[in-house]
Design goal:
It is a single chain. The protein is an alpha+beta fold and 196 residues long. The chain has one domain: Gcn5-related N-acetyltransferase (GNAT) (Aminopeptidase, 3-Layer(aba) Sandwich), CATH 3.40.630. It has five helices and eight strands, in the order E-E-H-H-E-E-E-H-E-H-E-E-H. Strands 1-2-3-4-5-6-8-7 form an eight-stranded mixed β-sheet, sandwiched between helices. Strand 7 (152-162) and strand 8 (168-177) form a beta hairpin. Helix 3 (109-125) packs antiparallel against helix 5 (181-193). The longest helix is centred in the middle third of the chain and has 17 residues, at 109-125. This is N-acetyltransferase domain-containing protein. InterPro entries: Acyl_CoA_acyltransferase (IPR016181), GNAT_dom (IPR000182). It holds the Pfam family Acetyltransf_3. One of its GO terms (molecular function) is acyltransferase activity, transferring groups other than amino-acyl groups.
Length: 196
Amino acid sequence: MAIGPVTLSGRHVELVPLSPAHADALAEAVRDGEVWRLWYTAVPAPERMAAEIDRRLGLQAAGSMLPFTVLDGPGGRPVGMTTYMNIEPAGPRLEIGSTWYAARVQRTPLNTEAKRLLLAHAFDGLGCLAVEFRTHVMNHASRRAIERLGARLDGILRHHQRLADGSLRDTCVYSVTAPEWPTVRAHLTWQLERPR
């Protein structure tokens, strides 16, 4: 699997390679909704944005992550971040995660289209066998969003990680497999094209 920086464009969203130049705009975007304050997420606070970008780019250099800045439409403003992570070239398989959005674009077509673009590149461009999504068992909004995509719950990893506050995270693991991708793609396309 040859994975490297790529731009993925749609009507509602553009995913561009993450860059240190995006730090100020992403710090502004994360203030919209203050999602870093949710105890069950690991979203960077505004003052930690530059360090988080450096961390993600370091993981990209190590070959375990491909991070994106999420733009509100082609050429639009940065409104969040997402990544391919836990990349396993031998599968090949990967996880779509470490995603956050400004409040103003949550529950809009932006997330649906972003996931469709990421899944299409993973399955059609990279030949993945499966794509995972993971979230905290208590992150009900994220779980509903993942389920609306058509991903299936594989199981729950109990006491999977220790959070910054010392609590233990139970992680819900979802996936879409390559044979399921055509149905999931049709569903996501329908969601994007249906009248609102």
